[in-house]
Design brief:
Rossmann fold; 3-stranded mixed sheet; alpha/beta; 4-stranded mixed sheet; 32% helix
Length: 203
């Protein structure tokens, strides 16, 4: 009888472990779906080069890292980025900048000595609070290379988006925040590319 009880307990534990191991994984991307109705920039800009994006070590994880009331944070084992977070942020910004500027990201392509906008961005904060907000803070710079008057400007941005409950809503909030950030960077890039003196975005 004792052996039978132990056997049943072992089977139950095995089934429980199997159920935990088979918990479904959900994958997310920061690259927003293409909006065919959105108007691209009417004035084509110079091609740009977006350097690799730095992200805070605390959130540089395959899993989503979210705030849980007060100062607590949680690493969500079943909610994951489809690529490393730095790559996700860079891909999202590259797509948004290409749309905003009406030009192409030529990163990794051989240079030809023609005018080029070089963009560098590092995230200082990437905060995720489900049902509350998605917040990013970034330090970034835009540099005009090979132009008649090479110039550069360095700025900082803080963008926060209110989000509804659920992880998909949280990710969509970060997509919107990155879109707003890209618009700020593009404003400076357009000014530099046209020979005007740019200013950092207010706020």
């Amino acid at each position: 009888m004792m052996r039978s009880a132990r056997h049943l307990a072992g089977v139950a534990a095995g089934l429980l472990l199997a159920a935990c191991a088979s918990a479904p994984l959900h994958y997310y991307t920061l690259v927003a779906p293409a909006d065919e109705s959105a108007a691209a920039s009417s004035a084509p800009s110079l091609p740009f080069e977006l350097l690799p994006v730095g992200v805070p070590a605390q959130v540089d994880q395959p899993q989503l890292v979210v705030r849980e009331g007060g100062q607590g944070v949680a690493l969500l084992g079943s909610e994951r980025w489809i690529a490393p977070l730095g790559d996700e942020v860079r891909s999202a910004l590259s797509a948004e900048l290409a749309r905003e500027l009406g030009s192409a990201d030529v990163s990794g392509l051989p240079g030809n000595g023609q005018p080029l906008l070089r963009i560098k961005l590092d995230l200082r904060r990437f905060d995720s609070a489900p049902g509350s907000y998605a917040l990013i803070e970034a330090a970034w710079s835009v540099r005009l290379l090979h132009g008649e008057r090479p110039a550069a400007l360095a700025c900082t941005s803080r963008v926060s988006e209110a989000v509804g409950p659920g992880y998909p809503a949280l990710v969509q909030g970060h997509q919107r925040a990155l879109g707003r950030l890209a618009a700020q960077v593009a404003g400076v890039a357009r000014a530099l590319g046209s020979g005007r003196t740019p200013a950092c975005p207010a706020g």
